[in-house]
Amino acid sequence: MATIDNLVEDFGSMLTEAEVLLKRSGNESGDTARALRSEVEAKLLAAKLRLQELEGKAIDGAKAAQKATNAYVHENPWQSIGIAAAVGLVVGLLMNRR
């Protein structure tokens, strides 16, 4: 959960900085405006790369969880069937209440 909080905080600060730079670039012209726009582009690129990095980590984690689940089901088929039946029963009861 800390990673998600850090991510939200990082993107919030990046977007705030980009917004400030964009507002400043509106008041500037020429080389100063180009420099500010370049800075905004760099911040946005950094945010995009960070997102791609986190996406890769999330995909790797999901694949590892899938492999672990698959191995467990193959090693314990009857327990897996019992767990699935119990979960299905609970979901059915919850849906029936509505």
How would you describe this protein?
This protein has one domain. The model has no long low-confidence stretch (mean pLDDT 82). Helix 1 packs antiparallel against helix 2 and helix 2 packs across helix 3. It is an all-alpha fold and 98 residues long. The radius of gyration is 24 Å and the shape is elongated. It contains 3 helices and no strands.
What keyword list fits this structure?
single chain, 98 residues, mainly alpha, 0% strand
Work out the oligomeric state of the chains in this entry. single chain
Using DSSP, what is the number of strands? 0
Q: What overall geometry do the principal axes of the alpha carbons give? A: elongated
Tally of individual helices: 3
> Helix/strand-derived class?
mainly alpha
How much of the sequence is in beta strands? under 5%
Helices and strands, in order, run as HHH
Structural domains: how many = 1
Give the helix level as a range of percent: over 70%
Report the mean per-residue pLDDT as an integer. 82
Low-pLDDT runs: none
Largest sheet: none
The first-to-last residue Cα distance is 31 Å
Q: Please compute the radius of gyration using only Cα atoms.
A: 24 Å
